[in-house]
Design a protein that fits this description.
membrane, single chain, signal, 863 residues, 16-stranded antiparallel beta sheet, transmembrane, 41 strands, Ubiquitin-like (UB roll), 7 domains, BamA/TamA_POTRA, D15-like, alpha+beta
Length: 863
């Protein structure tokens, strides 16, 4: 009987609804939103929470009790003995992750799946022990103990009942000595072995996988360093692959490999049991047009074996195949003598086909192709109901076939207009977009897509009961049929936004969750999408899922927001040595969601033989409201430039206000001490910015817009103003072609130190020039820059990119505009969700500099 750990949650002072659960539930706000009026709807929401097994309701007098049974949650997995496989690999293959509800997983299933995983990696003697511990609060601790045993390598194949030599069969099914013995691959070889016997004429044969024989090597087994079969004599290029495979054995399994070459290793032999049956000799006498292999496949004997019925069917199949190729006088007979079958084929003369003004050797496939091409052409012209066939008239004396295409094209089907009866401006815009492409050839996909767009709009705007009726009027002319659709849209009541139910958060405060949640009086799908985007961009959560539920009585939409918080802390430390900086100590400490209010902190510290560097970064994407964000950094940095080095120490801070989801305005403040070219400069800076960044998809964007305007004023040891403008667009064109361009420029006052002046050259801008080479030696007060790229797909995921850069630096705007530096280049890349991993080759177009190619390796798009 289920033991319930009862936790009573008083909803309000006079509440009569109580929640009881078998285990404590993850943090949620259910007790704050449920009441006597809505508990039936909220219960339906709870039933859809991942990890909830069952929910029931019980009334006792005027009180209502909601019983929630949740599955236990996987809290921790401890694996011991996994010397050859990473823990993450094991977890992934088992389908386990921390925080998952444990539903139908047993110790036995984990053991068997893990054994299979290891046996498929060559550890055929693996032993696995699994134990569970379930705590009182419903968390599972999983302990896995693994004894991997020795790695097995393939020693060859054993073929019981075979009359062929083992080497020939192993070569046929690619059993290679020296390869890691993988059980599942051995099992799959049975299909290749069956095909081999069929091809050899054993049409009644049967093959099955019996098991694996395991042995110790009786001497040095050098095949482990050079896994290869006899086919290497015909394909010597396999030597390279064999050497790489041997190196892989040595690298991944050094102990097992050394044991094998020293005579103490382990080898495995897959055992196949073969019932060969009779070997049939299928002969086709008189065949010229078709080859023996083609006729054997046409006959169907390989699939059905040999008997009186299959032979008769084979005869019919062969005759039919010949007639389709114009041998209308073909005659086929057969005779079975013991294990030999003889088909006697009298092909006769191939007929010549006459179709309109053309003649060609008769071929039914070619005629069908011509007919299909004619019909497709008519359908493209609007005759979408066109249908056809062909008739055949044979002149057996002349051996001629007269073909006539019989086509009924019907009338052109034209979608003339789509009318909307209503006053909703957004709906009217949808209809205008469709009417812009009309009149057009009638295509049901146009109507189907319009119907989906109407439904989508109604759902997105909260008209959950919205529907539409269509009326179709038809007009006919001599050659055409015209369709006019009239839509009457009934939006129905607009649903209000109901309760937001948060479930699964750990440390985040309810207020912080509210900041990220976009709410309005009425439900809209756009607000839900914006909410998901806010949760993800907060960098606090590893998973977010929002489901919606309709309360048709109250005309409301409730939202279930299930959250999985990311790991809060990360720590990394490394110690190294290089000849320039001597001993190097690097540390990183990251802590997310401080105090549960969304503050993220990163601390980096680097100590070398020459300097000490650090940075403490604090950020909050939702500062006390959904509109504000904060970035603050306390730092001591070191930068190497082409003709100077810069050491900066101080603090900087930016506060932004979101005008829209993608656009922010804000202020920047900083206090820094800077050292460059032997001069120390103390600066106070304050400024304003406008920032817009749009991506059509947060994880795999195809369209990106980025615009940035900054204006700052520096005071202190120097006084000057700085202004920069940058815009970047990535625009998808047709057929996978992408266009991207960037335009940027800037100005800085005369008193600006070298590290605040402008340089160009390198990966981010003028790629045909070396890093910061444009603007030497002291930089410029103005710069202009432009970039244009075209990305072409080759074969997924490969792309090629053609690009051109142009720009210059000067102490006057005219200098920065006149005589710009230019370069062109090309890239080869691999598409990824964040942009291509690309290799760039750039070439400067300036006459008076050395014509040197510049090479770059980069990831993504540079704004």
């Amino acid at each position: 009987m289920l033991f319930f750990l009862i936790v009573l949650f008083p909803i309000m002072a006079l509440s009569k609804v109580f929640i009881i659960s078998n285990y404590p539930l993850p943090k949620n706000n259910i007790e704050k939103v449920i009441n006597e009026d809505n508990y039936l709807d909220i219960v339906e929401v709870i039933k859809h929470i991942e990890g909830i097994k069952d929910v029931s309701i019980k009334k006792e007098g005027e009180d209502t009790y909601i019983y929630i049974e949740r599955y236990p949650i996987l809290k921790k997995v401890i694996i011991k003995g996994n010397l050859s496989l990473w823990k993450d690999t094991i977890m992934s293959r088992l389908g386990l992750y921390k925080g998952m509800p444990v539903k139908d997983i047993s110790k036995e299933s984990i053991q068997e799946r893990l054994k299979k995983l290891y046996r498929d990696e060559g550890f055929l003697d693996v032993k696995v022990a699994v134990t569970f511990e379930t705590s009182q609060d419903g968390y599972i601790y999983l302990y896995i103990s693994i004894e991997e045993g020795d790695i097995y390598f393939t020693g060859g194949g054993i073929y019981e009942g075979a009359t062929f030599k083992s080497d020939k069969l192993s070569r046929a099914i690619q059993i290679v000595k020296g390869r890691v013995a993988k059980e599942s691959q051995f099992e799959e070889k049975v299909f290749a072995l069956q095909d081999f016997y069929m091809d050899e004429g054993y049409l009644d044969s049967f093959v099955y996988f019996k098991g694996i024989r395991k042995e110790r090597t009786k001497g040095p087994f050098f095949s482990v360093l050079f896994p290869v079969d006899d086919s290497i004599e015909k394909k010597p290029t396999r030597i390279v692959g064999s050497l790489l495979e041997g190196f892989s054995n040595l690298f991944r399994h050094p102990v097992g490999t050394f044991k094998a070459i020293s005579g103490r290793g382990h080898i495995a032999y897959p055992i196949f049991n073969i019932i060969e049956g009779n070997r049939y000799s299928i002969n086709f006498e008189g065949a010229v047009f078709f080859s023996h292999e083609q006729l054997l496949n046409i006959s169907g004997l390989k699939e059905k074996g040999v008997d009186i019925f299959s032979l008769e069917e084979a005869k019919e199949n062969i005759e039919s195949a010949y007639r389709k190729k114009g041998f209308f006088d073909v005659n086929v007979s057969y005779k079975a003598m013991g294990n030999s079958v003889f088909f006697y084929i009298k092909e006769g003369q191939r007929y010549t086909a006459f179709l309109e003004d053309t003649e060609f050797p008769y071929d039914e496939d070619k005629i069908s192709s011509i007919l299909e091409e004619r019909l497709n052409r008519l359908k493209e012209e609007g005759y979408t109901l066109a249908e056809g066939s062909f008739s055949l008239n044979l002149d057996k004396e002349k051996k001629e076939a007269y073909v006539k295409l019989v086509i009924n094209k019907g009338k052109r089907q034209i979608l003339r207009k789509i009318l909307y009866q209503g006053d909703d401006k957004k709906l009217a815009k949808i209809f205008r977009q469709y009417n812009d492409i009309l009149p057009a050839i009638y295509d049901t996909h146009i109507i189907e897509k319009l119907n989906l767009d109407i439904k989508k709009y109604l759902q997105e705007m909260g008209y959950m009961e919205g529907d539409f009726d269509t009326n179709v009027s038809i007009d006919e002319s001599v050659d055409s049929v015209y369709y006019t659709y009239t839509y009457t849209v009934s939006k129905g009541p607009r649903y209000r936004l109901g309760q937001d139910i948060y479930y699964g958060y750990l440390h985040t405060s309810p207020k912080e969750l509210a900041y990220m949640t976009v709410k309005d009086e009425f439900y809209s799908e756009k607000d839900t999408d914006r909410t998901i985007n806010n949760f993800i961009s907060s960098d606090l959560f590893s998973g977010v899922k929002i489901d919606t539920f309709l309360d048709r009585g109250a005309k409301k939409v409730h939202r279930l927001i299930q959250l999985a918080e990311d790991k809060r802390g990360i720590y990394d430390i490394s110690l190294g040595y290089n000849t320039q900086e001597k001993v190097v100590l690097d540390t990183f400490l990251g802590w997310k969601n401080l105090l549960g209010i969304g503050l993220n902190t990163n601390f980096r510290y680097r100590r070398t033989g020459k300097r000490e560097l650090y940075s403490l970064d604090i950020s909050d994407n939702f500062l006390f409201t959904r509109k504000l964000w904060l970035r603050t950094s306390l730092f001591n940095n070191y930068e190497e430039h082409l003709n100077y080095t810069l050491t900066s120490k101080g603090i900087s801070s930016s506060v932004g206000y979101r005008i829209t989801d993608n656009t922010s305005v804000g202020i920047t403040l900083s206090r820094t001490t800077n050292s460059a070219l032997g001069e120390v400069v103390d600066l106070y800076k304050y400024g304003v910015f406008l920032l817009r960044e749009y991506k059509d998809n947060l994880f795999s964007p195809k369209r990106v817009h980025y615009d940035s305007i900054t204006l700052s004023r520096a005071v202190g040891d120097r006084e000057y103003t700085k202004f920069e403008l940058s815009t970047f667009y990535l625009i998808p064109l047709r057929r996978g072609i992408n266009l991207s361009f960037k335009v940027a420029g800037g100005y800085v006052g005369k008193s600006a130190p070298v590290f605040d002046r402008f340089f160009l050259g390198g990966l981010r801008d003028l790629r045909g020039y070396s890093f910061e080479s444009v603007g030497q030696p002291s930089g410029g007060r103005y710069y202009t820059f432009g970039r244009l790229e075209l990305e072409f797909p080759i074969k997924s995921p490969l792309v090629v990119i053609a690009f051109a850069d142009v720009g210059n630096v000067g102490d006057k705007l005219s200098h920065a505009i006149r005589n710009p530096k230019k370069d062109v280049g090309a890239s080869v890349g691999i598409k990824t969700p964040v942009g291509p991993i690309r290799f760039d080759v750039a070439f400067p177009l300036e006459r008076d500099i050395p014509k040197r190619l510049r090479l770059y390796l980069s990831v993504g798009y540079y704004y």
